[in-house]
């Protein structure tokens, strides 16, 4: 482990924070959130745990910051994916289906983000200060507003309020479906041992596309029957 040298300037602090975040991202390529410990993160960064805590107040604060950055990056990709895959002249239900397909593909290619979303409410938000929680929620709000704007642009029939609800529900669905589609080894073994259980192992992208499409179409129907 290298001897700790205090970062004197804001630029140095930013570089060190980025190093910690990048190391955490690399670890999430190898393990789930539950297995990522602050001790191992500190070891890989090359700093004592107490020194890592100079930059982030907890393991959860590191991961929330990482989630915030990952969500912002994906939003730009979703914008491109929707523009490329959704025909704005198609009927509303067809546009909803195309949007669901593009969204499912985009999220499926970002497993780290999905893993973090699956742990957000139940784990990551449980060991942080009000300051960290507020900063994270403000970033999450901006990402949700951005996603809602993209949805409304290609599916204007939803209107602003339903677009916002749809954006929030999509994020909830991503986290929930990721958890259920990536069960523990013992559960996977149970599925292999008893074929009658196989239907309970849902493929993530397929399930996300189906549920998002169903939800968006339902919102369209609700809007058509609500003044």
TrEMBL record:
Keywords: DNA-binding. Residues 14-74 form the HTH tetR-type domain. This is TetR family transcriptional regulator. The lineage of its organism: Bacteria, Bacillati, Actinomycetota, Actinomycetes, Frankiales. GO terms for molecular function: DNA-binding transcription factor activity; transcription cis-regulatory region binding. It comes from Parafrankia soli. Residues 37-56 bind DNA. It comes from the Bacteria. It holds the Pfam family TetR_C_34.
């Amino acid at each position: 482990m290298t001897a700790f040298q205090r970062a004197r300037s804001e630029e140095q602090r930013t570089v060190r924070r980025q190093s910690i975040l990048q190391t955490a991202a690399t670890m999430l390529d190898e393990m789930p959130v539950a297995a990522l410990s602050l001790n191992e993160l500190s070891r890989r960064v090359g700093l004592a745990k107490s020194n890592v805590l100079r930059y982030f107040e907890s393991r959860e604060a590191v991961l929330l910051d990482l989630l915030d950055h990952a969500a912002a990056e994906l939003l730009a990709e979703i914008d491109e994916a929707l523009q490329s895959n959704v025909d704005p002249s198609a009927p509303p239900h067809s546009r909803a289906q195309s949007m669901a397909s593009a969204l499912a593909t985009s999220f499926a290619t970002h497993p780290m983000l999905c893993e973090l979303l699956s742990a957000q409410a139940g784990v990551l938000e449980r060991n942080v200060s009000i300051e960290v929680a507020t900063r994270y929620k403000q970033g999450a709000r901006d990402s949700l507003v951005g996603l809602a704007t993209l949805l409304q642009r290609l599916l204007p029939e939803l209107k602003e309020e339903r677009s916002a609800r749809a954006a929030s529900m999509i994020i909830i669905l991503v986290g929930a479906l990721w958890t259920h589609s990536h069960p523990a080894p013992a559960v996977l073994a149970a599925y292999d041992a008893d074929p009658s259980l196989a239907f309970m192992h849902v493929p993530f992208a397929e399930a996300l596309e189906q549920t998002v499409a169903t939800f968006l179409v339902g919102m369209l129907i609700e809007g058509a029957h609500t003044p």
